[in-house]
Design goal:
about 475 residues, Aldehyde Dehydrogenase, Chain A, domain 2, 2 domains, 15 helices, binds nicotinamide-adenine-dinucleotide
Length: about 475
C-alpha cells in the first residue's frame, strides 16, 4: 500500500469508492501524521453491500462446506504470504509495535481463518431418538446476510475472528472494521478477490460507527450482528437490534483483575507474564489485567520487583524491534487515558511510576505515547478502579485472603477475564468457580485455544464467540422430527 492512499470499500466483489465520495483522515499514531484516507460510507453504501450479499447468499449457503473452507484457507495463505506487509500496516495504523503485530495479530488472523475453515468441515449436529418411534435431528442453516463490526485495538485479529465463522457457516457478510484502523481489513478485502470468493459473499464497508455501523445494525435484511467494542456502543446496538428481534453477539469492555497470592510461583518468567498482562499493546487489549490484586503478606516485596520490570519496558517507535510499547491509537484516546490518570491523582492515588506523556525523539516526537503507569493507594470503589481505562495504566490493590480477593475481583460492573496466580490447586478450582468472568486464566494470561467459549458476563457482553459457539451463533437450528 502506498503512503497517503485512499482505501476502498469491497462491495459486490469490486473495490469501490463511497457513493458520496467522502473520506476520513487516517493518522499514524506514532507520528500524528495523516497517511491514508478511508471511505466515510453512508447508508447507501451499506444498502448496496446488503443487496449484493443477498444475491450471493443462496449460492454460498448451498456450496459444499469443503469448497467454502478451501476459499477461506486460500485467503489465509494469501495473508500469510504477505505477513510482513500486513504487520507493518497494522503497526502503522494502530501504533502497536510491529514486533507484536508480526508475532500476535497477523498470525492469529491467519489462524482464525484456518481454524474456522477446519471447524466447519468437522462440525456435526445432534440427533435425539424417541422410544415412542421417532427420530429428531437438528438441521443448522446459515442465517443469510450478517453484520460484523470490529474495534481498533486488534484490527485484523478481531475482524477475521468474526468473518471467518460467519463465512464458514454459509452466511454472506457485510463487515465494518474500525474507522480508526481500517487498513488491514481493506487489504484483506483485496486479497479475498484474489482468493476467488464469489462477488457479494464478503463485503467490507468502511466508515464511522454512528453512520455506517448504525446502518448495518438497522438494515432489515441483516439477520444478526456480531459486535466487538465498547460497552456504550454495545448497549446502543442492542437497543437498535431488539425491535427487529435480531440476533446479537456483544463482546464489550472489561476491568480485569490479575490476582497474585503469596503462594504464587513468581519466577522471572511468570512475573514477565504478569507485567505483559497489564501493558501488552499499550494496555489496549480488552483482556489486559488493569487491576493488580496482591496478597498483603507479599505486597511490598512484590511491588518492588514488579516496578523494576515495568520501569524496564521500552516505549518508542513501533517500527523499532526494541520497542515493547508503541503509541496509543488516537489523539482522542490519548486524551482520555491522560484524563483517567489525572482523575486517579484527584482520587488520591499515588503514581508509583509513569503518569505522563512521552515524546520519543526523531520521527515520533509528535506521537501519542504514554509512559507505563502504576498507581497505588486507591480503593476498589474509586472510579479509577471501576471504569475501563484501556491504556498503559495498572492499579495495585492489596487483599487479605481468598474471600477478600473474590469480592474485590468481582466488585466491578464488568466480567470479561480474570487471571489468578497461585500454586494451590484447590484454591485455583475454588476460585475458578467463584470468579464471575467469562475467562479465568490460572498461572497464565492470553493463552487462547480457539475451540473455547470466549466472552464476558455483566457489562462485558452477551453471548460467546469461539469454536462451536460462533458456528451456533451464525446458524439457525431447526428440529426435524420423523415418525417411523
Ligand atoms: P467502539 O465501541 O467505539 O467501536 C467499535 C466498533 O463499533 C467500531 O467499528 C465503530 O465504528 C463501531 N460503532 C460505533 N458506534 C456504532 C453504532 N452506533 N452502531 C454500530 N457500530 C458502531 O469501540 P472501540 O473504541 O473501537 O474499541 C475499544 C473497546 O472495545 C474497549 O471497550 C474494549 O474493551 C472493547 N473490546 C472488547 C473485546 C472483547 O472481546 N470483549 C475485544 C476488543 C476490544
Amino acid at each position: 500500500m502506498m503512503p497517503s492512499t485512499r482505501l476502498a470499500n469491497l462491495i459486490d466483489g469490486r473495490l469501490q469508492a463511497p457513493v458520496d465520495n467522502r473520506w476520513l483522515d487516517i493518522h499514524e499514531p506514532a507520528t500524528g501524521v495523516v497517511f491514508a484516507h478511508c471511505p466515510d460510507s453512508t447508508a447507501a453504501d451499506v444498502d448496496a453491500a446488503v443487496k449484493s450479499a443477498q444475491k450471493a447468499a443462496p449460492g454460498w449457503a448451498s456450496m459444499p462446506s469443503e469448497e467454502r473452507a478451501r476459499l477461506i484457507n486460500r485467503l489465509a495463505d494469501l495473508v500469510e504470504a504477505r505477513l510482513e506487509e500486513f504487520a507493518a500496516l497494522e503497526s502503522r495504523d494502530s501504533g502497536k509495535p510491529v514486533a507484536l503485530a508480526r508475532r500476535l495479530d497477523i498470525p492469529r488472523a491467519v489462524s482464525n481463518l484456518r481454524f474456522f475453515a477446519a471447524a466447519i468441515i468437522a462440525w456435526d449436529s445432534e440427533s435425539h431418538a424417541m422410544e415412542s418411534g421417532a427420530i429428531n435431528y437438528t438441521l443448522r442453516r446459515p442465517l443469510g446476510v450478517v453484520g460484523c463490526i470490529s474495534p481498533w485495538n486488534l484490527p485484523l485479529y478481531l475482524f477475521t475472528w468474526k468473518i471467518a465463522p460467519a463465512l464458514a457457516s454459509g452466511n454472506t457478510v457485510v463487515a465494518k472494521p474500525s474507522e480508526i484502523t481500517p487498513c488491514t481489513a481493506a487489504l484483506l478485502g483485496e486479497l479475498s478477490i484474489e482468493a476467488g470468493f464469489p462477488p457479494g459473499v464478503l463485503n467490507i464497508v468502511q466508515g464511522r460507527g454512528p453512520t455506517t455501523g448504525q446502518a448495518i445494525v438497522e438494515h432489515p435484511a441483516i439477520k444478526a450482528v456480531s459486535f466487538t467494542g465498547s460497552t456504550r456502543t454495545g448497549a446502543s446496538i442492542a437497543a437498535t437490534a431488539a425491535p427487529q428481534f435480531k440476533k446479537v453477539s456483544l463482546e464489550l469492555g472489561g476491568k480485569n483483575p490479575a490476582i497474585v497470592f503469596a503462594d504464587a510461583d513468581l519466577s522471572d518468567q511468570n512475573l514477565d507474564t504478569i507485567v505483559r498482562s497489564g501493558f501488552a499493546n499499550q494496555g489496549e487489549i480488552c483482556l489486559c489485567g488493569s487491576r493488580l490484586l496482591v496478597q498483603r503478606s507479599i505486597y511490598d516485596s512484590f511491588r518492588e520487583r514488579y516496578l523494576a520490570r515495568v520501569k524496564a519496558l521500552r516505549v518508542g517507535d513501533p517500527e523499532e524491534a526494541s520497542s515493547d510499547l508503541g503509541a496509543l491509537v488516537s489523539r482522542e484516546h490519548f486524551d482520555k487515558v491522560m484524563g483517567c490518570i489525572a482523575q486517579a491523582r484527584d482520587e488520591g492515588g499515588q503514581i508509583l511510576i509513569g503518569g505522563h506523556a512521552l515524546s520519543p525523539t526523531g520521527r515520533c516526537a509528535e506521537g501519542w505515547f504514554i509512559a507505563p503507569t502504576v498507581i497505588d493507594g486507591l480503593p476498589n470503589e474509586t472510579a479509577t478502579n471501576q471504569q475501563e481505562i484501556f491504556g498503559p495504566v495498572v492499579t495495585l490493590i492489596p487483599f487479605e485472603d481468598e474471600a477478600d480477593a473474590v469480592a474485590i475481583a468481582n466488585g466491578t460492573g464488568y466480567g470479561l477475564a480474570a487471571s489468578l496466580w497461585t500454586t494451590d490447586l484447590s484454591r485455583a478450582h475454588r476460585m475458578g468457580a467463584q470468579l464471575d468472568f467469562g475467562i479465568v486464566w490460572i498461572n497464565c494470561w492470553l493463552l487462547r485455544d480457539l475451540r473455547t467459549p470466549f466472552g464476558g458476563t455483566k457489562q462485558s457482553g452477551v453471548g460467546r464467540e469461539g469454536g462451536a459457539e460462533a458456528l451456533r451463533f451464525f446458524t439457525e437450528p431447526r428440529n426435524i422430527c420423523i415418525r417411523y
